[in-house]
Amino acid sequence: MARHRADWMTGSDDAILEFLSDSGAGHNYQGIANNFEDRGIDISYKTITRRIPKLREAGLVRVLPGEGRYYAITARGEAYLEGEADLRDLDEPE
Asked: Which residue of 6, 52, 64, 74 could cross-link 70, Cys pair, CB 3.0 to 4.6 Å?
């Protein structure tokens, strides 16, 4: 299962996507940061707030409907994690 990430993507992106996939639920920035801290994952709240908008623009994460901003992984994000989506030609979102 080789993942083919875009040049602009980071290991933090993989960790965020893996967490959202494993949890099966939507989370806000603070919820992700709290879970990472509890699990000993060294990714800061600031990094999370910078990376999720890029993942969203790339179609790997979506905002769930309702009040507040809760994020969940998309089918494209799942396909990337499973090695089925090649993102190497994906341009970096603004």
From this structure: 64
